Predict the structure.
Amino acid sequence: MKNVLRRNIRTLLIVFSVMFAGLAVYLTYVEFTFGERWFVTPYNPRIQQSEADVEPGSLLDRTGRKLLYTENDERVYLSDKSMRLAISHIIGDSYGMTYGAQTMFAKYLYGYDQDTISRIVGLVSGEKRRGGDVRLTIDAELCETALKALDGYNGAAVVMNYKTGEILASASSPTFDPTDMKEFLEGGGESELVNRAFAGLYPPGSTFKLITAAALIENGLGGFQTTCAGSTEIGGKTIKCTDEHGPEDLKEAIQHSCNVYFSEAAQQLGGEKLYREANQFLFNSDVMFSDIVMGESVFEKAGSDTDLGWSAIGQYHDLITPLHACMIAACIANDGAMMEPKLLESVSYGNTQTYALSTAVAARPLDDTSLLKEYMVNAVAKGTGKKAAIKGVTVGGKTGTAEIAGKDGNEEHSWFVGFIEDEAHPLAVAVVMEKAGSGGSHAAPAAKKVLQKAMELGY
Ligand SMILES: [Zn+2]
């Protein structure tokens, strides 16, 4: 009798120790929580050890295309090289050197979002569990078009559905190949690993005039007028324009991207109101998005009239990420509701879906965007954004030519942000091409290519 009891206790202890081992694996699974965000580094040896118990699920694009999956215990990337390079920043690498989807969504891929009991049962039974299949909001084919549209320049392109916040495409150049990380593991190539679309901070140039315009309208200065003589003196310094634009109102100033107009209008507005408007559009905010780590865009309160003039036209110390620029265009297109950018479409275990996209409003800086929309549509129809025009749909946009100090004088980043005004194609876009020249000549036609492809694919 005693022996039987002893044997039962021993069995029980073994069961418990297995359970504790399971819990230990779970608890030592490396996780970093930052606010509501949850990071995992798959490169960590403990995670690799847990791969022995779990077959990680697949990463799919929104069309069901397999971007990363497990075959014969190996993780396999999309075989189409051109597409693989276009999505590499979104997917990330297996070494945890980038914050791609395999890091951001590791808890699903490795099944750590399932309840503890089912995990322990899995461990006790000794059967290899399978993680969740993660479907992303991106379309890899559209990402490929976005990367090609950058035409070999460093930079980024983002396309969003402005009603839902779903990121349909995101590309960052230069890129890297997650199947060939040797160079990076040896310490080189940092520039390629940065996802410029989400983390790259650029001077916004004239795309920032949209924020200045919003502040003017909000503060009863939408009727401001001036005459552009090609330059203006503010605080004893000269701010130049690309042309002598003559008499300008807000609509014409957006159409021509008139520096004189916006730097003078900002003096009427005052630094405080412009700063407040920028903050309402999520500048200077450490935003917490569930699916994405986005760099913090910067708008500093200007200390002098000259600095205020420059900051109102997107120079001075202004900085923005391409994703944020896309969100601003999306916000204007979506009647003032800025949707949180989303990358996670769904999570499924076999036929059971355990997570589905939930949309959220990230900010609501404006109650009425009808004027801004009209002025942006006008800028594409008649102004600096002409090369973004698409037959058959209404496109609105704003170009930007952001000056930066280069080795041989000033160089220019080429910008375009815009949208399609159409219920059937609720698309917003942002493109930045480093040192490519004017926004109207490079980024605008690049944005057109990406928007056209998006429509062709049914978005
Ligand atoms: Zn002008």
Notes: The pocket of zinc ion is lined by residues 228, 241, 245, 256, 258-260 (CB under 6 Å). Residues 11-38 have pLDDT under 50 and may be disordered.
